[in-house]
Write the C-alpha cells for this entry.
Amino acid sequence: ANLLLDEMGLNQRDAEGYRLLANGERLSFTIEFVDITTAKVPNVELVTEYWKELGVEARSREISGELAGQRAPANLMDATLWHGDKASDVLFPVQAQFFVPQGPGWERSKWPLWGRWLHTGGTAGEEPPEMIKELRVLWEEMLDEPDPDRQLELGHKILQAQADNLWTIGTIGRAPHPLIVNQALRNIRDDGLWVWDTVHLATHNPSQIFFDH
C-alpha cells in the first residue's frame, strides 16, 4: 500500500509523517458511521489505525441514522462503512448497491450524485464517466436476463470491475458468526448463513425450533 501511494505521487509528508496532497494539504478523510446491527466501533478503530500507519490521516465520527440519511445522499460524507449486506447470491442480482451506482442511500456515501443521475435518467445529480455508465448497463441487463448462465457472466463482469477499481473497500468476507444456543433448544442447524439477505435465521424455519424439556 505504501508503494502504491508513493507511485501515485503522494510521497511527500509533513512533520508528523502524514502524506501531503499536491496542494500541500494533508491527505485526510473522515469515516462517518451509524453503529447499529453489527459492532462498528471496533472495526472503525482498526481501519483508521491501519490508514494512519500509511501516512493517511483517517478520523472517525459516529452519527445518528437520521443524520446519515441526510449527509450520504447529499454527497457530504468522505466515507462510511456498512457490513456488506445485499452482496450474496440472494440479493446481489437485484440490489448490487456496493458495486453499481443506484439511488442514493444512507448506508453508502460513494457516487450518490452519479447514482441520482442514473436513477433519474439524467435529470438530477452528476453525469458519471462512461465506465460507470457501462457498469449500470451490465447490472440492468443482469436484472432482466432470463438465462442463468448469461446472468452469471454479467455478474462476474460487475465483480471484476469491483476487483479492478475497488469501488468498495472490503475488510473481511465470509466471517464466522457464532450462534449461542440453549442446549435444550432443538432443530437448530449446525451450520448456515447469517446475513440480512436471508433475514438471518428466517431460512432455517424458526417456527420448527422448540425447547425439549
User: Anything to note?
Assistant: The mean pLDDT is 93.
